[in-house]
Amino acid sequence: MSTGEARKTMVVDCLLSPPQLLVLDEAFDGLDSQSRDDLREVLLRTLDADGGRRTGALALIAHHPDDLVPPPTHALLLGQGEGRTGFLGGEWREMAATVGAYFDSQRLASSVRPPRPRLRRGAVAAEAAAEAAAATIVDFREVTVQYATNKVFDRLCWRVREREKWVVLGGNGSGKSTMIELITGDNLQGFRQDLWLFGRKKGSGESIWDIKKQLGVLSTEFHMDYIDYADPSINRNAASGGGVTNWEVVLSGFFDSVGLRGCAVTPSHEQEARRLVERLGLQDLISHPPPRGCTAASASASASASA
Q1: CB of 22 closer than 8 Å to CB of 14
Q2: What's this model's pTM, rounded to 2 decimal places?
Q3: DSSP 8-class letter at 289
Q4: What does 40-80 look like in DSSP terms, one character per residue?
Q5: Could you tell me the end-to-end alpha-carbon distance of the chain, in angstroms, rounded to an integer?
Q6: Based on the number of CB atoms within 10 Å of its own CB, is 29 exposed (0-12), middle (13-18) or buried (19 or more)?
Protein backbone atom coordinates (compact mmCIF):
# COMPACT_ATOMS: atom_id res chain seq x y z
CA MET A 1 0.00 0.00 0.00
CA SER A 2 1.39 3.42 -0.92
CA THR A 3 2.03 6.22 1.57
CA GLY A 4 -1.01 8.11 0.28
CA GLU A 5 -3.26 5.08 0.61
CA ALA A 6 -1.89 4.41 4.11
CA ARG A 7 -2.72 7.99 5.15
CA LYS A 8 -6.29 7.68 3.86
CA THR A 9 -6.69 4.36 5.64
CA MET A 10 -5.47 5.93 8.88
CA VAL A 11 -8.10 8.66 8.55
CA VAL A 12 -10.68 5.87 8.71
CA ASP A 13 -8.78 4.43 11.70
CA CYS A 14 -9.07 7.76 13.55
CA LEU A 15 -12.77 8.17 12.79
CA LEU A 16 -14.06 4.73 13.72
CA SER A 17 -14.53 5.96 17.28
CA PRO A 18 -15.20 9.64 16.50
CA PRO A 19 -12.65 11.60 18.57
CA GLN A 20 -13.41 14.79 20.44
CA LEU A 21 -10.09 16.11 19.15
CA LEU A 22 -8.55 15.03 15.83
CA VAL A 23 -4.87 15.98 15.38
CA LEU A 24 -3.45 15.94 11.84
CA ASP A 25 0.32 16.42 12.03
CA GLU A 26 1.71 17.21 8.54
CA ALA A 27 -0.78 14.74 7.09
CA PHE A 28 0.18 15.64 3.49
CA ASP A 29 3.96 15.28 3.86
CA GLY A 30 5.61 12.95 1.37
CA LEU A 31 2.51 12.49 -0.80
CA ASP A 32 2.41 12.87 -4.56
CA SER A 33 -0.04 15.27 -6.22
CA GLN A 34 -2.79 12.70 -6.76
CA SER A 35 -2.52 11.32 -3.22
CA ARG A 36 -2.68 14.86 -1.80
CA ASP A 37 -5.84 15.54 -3.79
CA ASP A 38 -7.36 12.25 -2.66
CA LEU A 39 -6.59 12.93 1.01
CA ARG A 40 -8.04 16.47 0.77
CA GLU A 41 -11.25 15.03 -0.64
CA VAL A 42 -11.50 12.48 2.18
CA LEU A 43 -10.90 15.14 4.84
CA LEU A 44 -13.43 17.52 3.34
CA ARG A 45 -16.07 14.80 3.04
CA THR A 46 -15.42 13.65 6.58
CA LEU A 47 -14.60 16.73 8.65
CA ASP A 48 -17.07 19.07 6.99
CA ALA A 49 -19.86 16.46 6.91
CA ASP A 50 -23.42 17.49 7.80
CA GLY A 51 -22.84 21.14 7.02
CA GLY A 52 -19.88 21.41 9.40
CA ARG A 53 -21.90 20.45 12.47
CA ARG A 54 -19.28 18.09 13.92
CA THR A 55 -19.11 18.31 17.68
CA GLY A 56 -15.41 17.49 17.90
CA ALA A 57 -12.45 19.79 17.18
CA LEU A 58 -9.52 19.67 14.76
CA ALA A 59 -5.88 20.70 15.27
CA LEU A 60 -4.07 20.78 11.94
CA ILE A 61 -0.27 21.11 11.82
CA ALA A 62 0.68 22.45 8.38
CA HIS A 63 3.46 24.15 6.41
CA HIS A 64 1.57 24.64 3.14
CA PRO A 65 -1.54 26.76 2.54
CA ASP A 66 -3.02 24.04 0.32
CA ASP A 67 -3.00 21.73 3.33
CA LEU A 68 -5.52 23.84 5.27
CA VAL A 69 -8.33 21.34 4.80
CA PRO A 70 -11.00 21.90 5.89
CA PRO A 71 -10.69 25.71 6.04
CA PRO A 72 -9.75 26.66 9.61
CA THR A 73 -11.90 28.66 11.98
CA HIS A 74 -8.89 29.68 14.11
CA ALA A 75 -5.11 29.83 13.86
CA LEU A 76 -2.17 29.59 16.26
CA LEU A 77 1.24 30.83 15.08
CA LEU A 78 4.20 29.70 17.19
CA GLY A 79 7.83 30.79 17.26
CA GLN A 80 7.14 34.53 17.44
CA GLY A 81 9.02 37.38 19.05
CA GLU A 82 12.45 37.54 20.62
CA GLY A 83 13.80 34.08 21.26
CA ARG A 84 11.00 32.59 19.11
CA THR A 85 9.08 31.52 22.23
CA GLY A 86 6.05 33.76 21.72
CA PHE A 87 2.80 33.11 19.88
CA LEU A 88 -0.14 34.74 18.11
CA GLY A 89 -3.61 33.22 18.06
CA GLY A 90 -7.23 33.98 17.34
CA GLU A 91 -10.14 33.55 14.97
CA TRP A 92 -9.28 32.97 11.32
CA ARG A 93 -10.78 36.25 10.13
CA GLU A 94 -8.33 38.02 12.45
CA MET A 95 -5.35 35.76 11.71
CA ALA A 96 -5.67 35.18 7.95
CA ALA A 97 -3.46 38.13 6.99
CA THR A 98 -0.83 37.18 9.58
CA VAL A 99 -0.85 33.57 8.42
CA GLY A 100 -0.59 34.75 4.81
CA ALA A 101 2.43 36.86 5.75
CA TYR A 102 3.96 33.85 7.50
CA PHE A 103 3.57 31.71 4.40
CA ASP A 104 5.07 34.55 2.34
CA SER A 105 8.10 34.63 4.60
CA GLN A 106 8.47 30.88 4.20
CA ARG A 107 8.13 31.18 0.41
CA LEU A 108 5.27 28.71 0.43
CA ALA A 109 2.42 30.90 -0.77
CA SER A 110 1.36 34.46 -1.42
CA SER A 111 -1.78 34.48 0.69
CA VAL A 112 -4.33 32.18 2.30
CA ARG A 113 -7.84 33.57 2.67
CA PRO A 114 -10.47 30.79 2.48
CA PRO A 115 -13.91 32.31 1.85
CA ARG A 116 -16.26 32.28 4.81
CA PRO A 117 -19.73 30.91 4.00
CA ARG A 118 -22.53 33.44 3.93
CA LEU A 119 -25.23 32.69 6.49
CA ARG A 120 -28.77 33.98 6.72
CA ARG A 121 -29.57 36.25 9.65
CA GLY A 122 -31.25 33.46 11.62
CA ALA A 123 -28.38 31.10 10.88
CA VAL A 124 -25.86 33.69 12.13
CA ALA A 125 -27.69 33.94 15.46
CA ALA A 126 -27.88 30.15 15.77
CA GLU A 127 -24.18 29.86 14.96
CA ALA A 128 -23.28 32.46 17.61
CA ALA A 129 -25.42 30.65 20.22
CA ALA A 130 -23.81 27.30 19.39
CA GLU A 131 -20.32 28.79 19.70
CA ALA A 132 -21.15 30.34 23.08
CA ALA A 133 -22.34 26.97 24.38
CA ALA A 134 -19.42 24.97 22.95
CA ALA A 135 -17.41 23.01 25.51
CA THR A 136 -13.68 23.63 25.91
CA ILE A 137 -11.63 20.63 24.74
CA VAL A 138 -8.05 21.93 25.14
CA ASP A 139 -6.97 24.75 27.44
CA PHE A 140 -3.31 25.78 27.77
CA ARG A 141 -3.06 28.32 30.60
CA GLU A 142 0.33 30.07 30.45
CA VAL A 143 2.11 26.83 29.64
CA THR A 144 5.91 27.05 29.64
CA VAL A 145 8.17 24.26 28.37
CA GLN A 146 11.92 24.46 28.78
CA TYR A 147 14.84 22.06 28.34
CA ALA A 148 17.93 23.33 30.20
CA THR A 149 18.47 26.77 28.66
CA ASN A 150 16.26 26.09 25.62
CA LYS A 151 12.77 27.53 26.17
CA VAL A 152 10.18 26.15 23.73
CA PHE A 153 7.06 27.91 25.04
CA ASP A 154 6.87 30.97 27.22
CA ARG A 155 3.45 31.22 28.95
CA LEU A 156 1.50 29.83 25.99
CA CYS A 157 -2.25 30.43 26.22
CA TRP A 158 -4.41 28.43 23.81
CA ARG A 159 -8.01 27.29 24.04
CA VAL A 160 -9.81 24.93 21.63
CA ARG A 161 -13.58 24.55 21.81
CA GLU A 162 -16.04 22.20 20.13
CA ARG A 163 -16.64 22.79 16.41
CA GLU A 164 -13.48 24.89 16.01
CA LYS A 165 -10.85 23.99 13.38
CA TRP A 166 -7.42 25.33 14.28
CA VAL A 167 -4.34 25.49 12.07
CA VAL A 168 -1.04 25.49 13.99
CA LEU A 169 1.95 27.04 12.25
CA GLY A 170 5.59 27.79 13.00
CA GLY A 171 9.08 27.04 11.79
CA ASN A 172 11.18 24.04 12.71
CA GLY A 173 11.81 23.97 16.46
CA SER A 174 8.99 26.39 17.31
CA GLY A 175 7.18 23.76 19.41
CA LYS A 176 4.49 22.23 17.19
CA SER A 177 5.44 18.64 17.97
CA THR A 178 5.93 19.51 21.65
CA MET A 179 2.39 20.88 21.75
CA ILE A 180 1.00 17.60 20.39
CA GLU A 181 3.05 15.59 22.88
CA LEU A 182 1.66 17.69 25.74
CA ILE A 183 -1.85 16.79 24.59
CA THR A 184 -1.23 13.08 24.00
CA GLY A 185 0.71 12.62 27.25
CA ASP A 186 4.02 11.79 25.54
CA ASN A 187 5.69 14.83 27.14
CA LEU A 188 5.89 14.59 30.92
CA GLN A 189 6.25 18.35 31.36
CA GLY A 190 2.52 18.59 30.65
CA PHE A 191 1.79 17.16 34.10
CA ARG A 192 3.50 20.14 35.76
CA GLN A 193 1.53 22.74 33.83
CA ASP A 194 -1.87 24.39 34.12
CA LEU A 195 -3.12 22.36 31.16
CA TRP A 196 -6.72 21.13 30.81
CA LEU A 197 -7.98 18.44 28.44
CA PHE A 198 -11.63 17.51 27.98
CA GLY A 199 -12.65 19.50 31.07
CA ARG A 200 -10.06 17.98 33.40
CA LYS A 201 -6.71 19.29 34.63
CA LYS A 202 -3.81 17.21 33.37
CA GLY A 203 -2.24 15.22 36.18
CA SER A 204 -5.38 15.16 38.34
CA GLY A 205 -5.60 11.36 38.36
CA GLU A 206 -6.54 10.52 34.80
CA SER A 207 -4.66 7.78 32.95
CA ILE A 208 -3.02 8.27 29.58
CA TRP A 209 -5.68 5.96 28.13
CA ASP A 210 -8.46 8.19 29.49
CA ILE A 211 -6.98 10.91 27.29
CA LYS A 212 -6.11 8.85 24.23
CA LYS A 213 -9.54 7.27 23.91
CA GLN A 214 -10.87 10.75 23.16
CA LEU A 215 -8.14 11.57 20.62
CA GLY A 216 -7.58 10.83 16.97
CA VAL A 217 -4.02 11.42 15.75
CA LEU A 218 -2.71 11.14 12.19
CA SER A 219 0.98 11.88 11.66
CA THR A 220 4.08 10.75 9.82
CA GLU A 221 5.31 9.25 13.09
CA PHE A 222 2.16 7.12 13.33
CA HIS A 223 2.74 5.87 9.78
CA MET A 224 6.31 4.95 10.69
CA ASP A 225 5.07 3.11 13.78
CA TYR A 226 3.09 0.81 11.50
CA ILE A 227 6.11 0.20 9.29
CA ASP A 228 8.15 -0.74 12.38
CA TYR A 229 5.30 -2.92 13.68
CA ALA A 230 5.29 -4.91 10.44
CA ASP A 231 9.09 -5.31 10.28
CA PRO A 232 10.26 -8.61 11.87
CA SER A 233 13.76 -7.17 12.32
CA ILE A 234 12.28 -4.55 14.70
CA ASN A 235 9.20 -6.24 16.14
CA ARG A 236 9.73 -9.88 17.12
CA ASN A 237 5.95 -10.42 17.06
CA ALA A 238 5.61 -9.28 13.44
CA ALA A 239 4.41 -11.75 10.85
CA SER A 240 7.23 -13.58 9.10
CA GLY A 241 6.17 -12.04 5.78
CA GLY A 242 6.49 -8.55 7.21
CA GLY A 243 2.92 -7.59 6.29
CA VAL A 244 0.13 -5.78 8.11
CA THR A 245 -3.13 -5.67 6.22
CA ASN A 246 -4.96 -2.44 5.58
CA TRP A 247 -8.05 -4.07 7.10
CA GLU A 248 -6.11 -4.51 10.37
CA VAL A 249 -5.06 -0.85 10.23
CA VAL A 250 -8.70 0.22 9.99
CA LEU A 251 -9.91 -2.10 12.77
CA SER A 252 -7.13 -0.98 15.13
CA GLY A 253 -8.95 2.35 15.37
CA PHE A 254 -11.33 0.73 17.86
CA PHE A 255 -8.50 -0.14 20.25
CA ASP A 256 -6.04 2.78 20.06
CA SER A 257 -3.44 0.25 19.01
CA VAL A 258 -0.84 -0.37 16.33
CA GLY A 259 -1.97 -3.67 14.86
CA LEU A 260 -4.51 -6.03 16.41
CA ARG A 261 -2.34 -8.24 18.61
CA GLY A 262 -4.35 -9.07 21.74
CA CYS A 263 -7.45 -7.19 20.51
CA ALA A 264 -10.88 -8.86 20.53
CA VAL A 265 -12.50 -7.84 17.24
CA THR A 266 -16.25 -8.47 17.15
CA PRO A 267 -18.67 -8.67 14.20
CA SER A 268 -20.06 -5.27 15.24
CA HIS A 269 -16.56 -3.79 14.95
CA GLU A 270 -16.23 -5.20 11.45
CA GLN A 271 -19.69 -3.99 10.47
CA GLU A 272 -18.97 -0.44 11.62
CA ALA A 273 -15.53 -0.44 9.97
CA ARG A 274 -17.03 -1.60 6.67
CA ARG A 275 -19.78 1.02 6.93
CA LEU A 276 -17.27 3.84 7.32
CA VAL A 277 -14.98 2.51 4.60
CA GLU A 278 -17.93 2.38 2.20
CA ARG A 279 -19.17 5.80 3.26
CA LEU A 280 -15.80 7.36 2.38
CA GLY A 281 -15.49 5.39 -0.85
CA LEU A 282 -12.28 3.64 0.22
CA GLN A 283 -13.26 0.07 -0.62
CA ASP A 284 -10.36 -0.10 -3.08
CA LEU A 285 -7.93 0.11 -0.16
CA ILE A 286 -9.01 -3.33 1.08
CA SER A 287 -7.09 -5.57 -1.31
CA HIS A 288 -9.40 -8.56 -0.75
CA PRO A 289 -12.44 -7.31 1.20
CA PRO A 290 -13.41 -9.97 3.74
CA PRO A 291 -16.99 -11.23 3.47
CA ARG A 292 -19.49 -9.74 5.92
CA GLY A 293 -19.13 -11.40 9.28
CA CYS A 294 -15.58 -12.52 8.54
CA THR A 295 -13.24 -12.50 11.55
CA ALA A 296 -10.19 -10.27 11.73
CA ALA A 297 -7.94 -13.32 11.73
CA SER A 298 -9.35 -14.61 8.45
CA ALA A 299 -9.22 -11.08 7.02
CA SER A 300 -5.55 -10.94 7.89
CA ALA A 301 -4.93 -14.22 6.16
CA SER A 302 -6.86 -13.22 3.03
CA ALA A 303 -5.41 -9.74 2.53
CA SER A 304 -1.79 -9.30 1.54
CA ALA A 305 -1.35 -5.54 1.23
CA SER A 306 1.63 -4.28 3.17
CA ALA A 307 1.32 -1.12 5.27
Answers
A1: yes
A2: 0.52
A3: P
A4: HHHHHHHHTHHHH--SSEEEEE-SSGGG--SPPSEEEEEEE
A5: 6
A6: middle
